[in-house]
């Protein structure tokens, strides 16, 4: 998993893709555990910046908590992993 926020229009934003997702929250952390990005809106992704400043190249950790509405039931899910920011 990697993305290249270099404004070339290709792979500039890290965000999930899915359907039937409700009650979404994602958080991206740096190596020290600091929060670099957080969103409750599945349509808003991370552009590789923290407070408007470009983050350094490296590996970041994401945690996404959400619920799926399938067949009339709600299923809670948590996904986590790493994302590499490349410039």
Concise synopsis of the structure shown:
By secondary structure, the chain is mainly β. Helices cover 0% and strands 53% of the residues. Strands 1-7-6-2-3 form a five-stranded mixed β-sheet, with no helix packed on it.
Structure summary, number of beta strands: 7
Globular, elongated, flat, extended or rod-shaped: what is the shape?
Answer: elongated
Strand order of the largest sheet: 1-7-6-2-3
What value does the Rg take, in angstroms?
Answer: 14 Å
> In DSSP terms, counting alpha (H) and pi (I) runs of 4 or more, how many helices?
0
List the secondary-structure elements in sequence, H or E: EEEEEEE
Helix share of residues? under 10%
Strand content: over 45%
Nearest-integer average pLDDT:
95
Which structural class should the secondary elements be placed in? mainly beta
Cα(first) to Cα(last) distance is 14 Å
Oligomer: single chain
Provide the low-confidence segments as ranges. Answer: none
* Main beta sheet: 5 strands, mixed
Write up this protein:
- The chain is an all-beta fold and 87 residues long.
- It contains no helices and 7 strands.
- The protein has strands at residues 2-3, 21-29, 35-39, 49-50, 53-54, 58-70, 73-85.
- The strands form 2 sheets. Strands 1-7-6-2-3 form a 5-stranded mixed sheet, with no helix packed on it. Strands 4-5 form a two-stranded antiparallel ribbon.
- A hairpin with a 5-residue loop joins strand 2 (21-29) and strand 3.
- It is elongated.
- The model has no long low-confidence stretch (mean pLDDT 95).
Task: Break the fold down into its secondary structure elements and pairings.
Blueprint: E1 2-3, E2 21-29, E3 35-39, E4 49-50, E5 53-54, E6 58-70, E7 73-85
Parallel strand pairs: 1-7
Antiparallel strand pairs: 2-3, 2-6, 4-5, 6-7
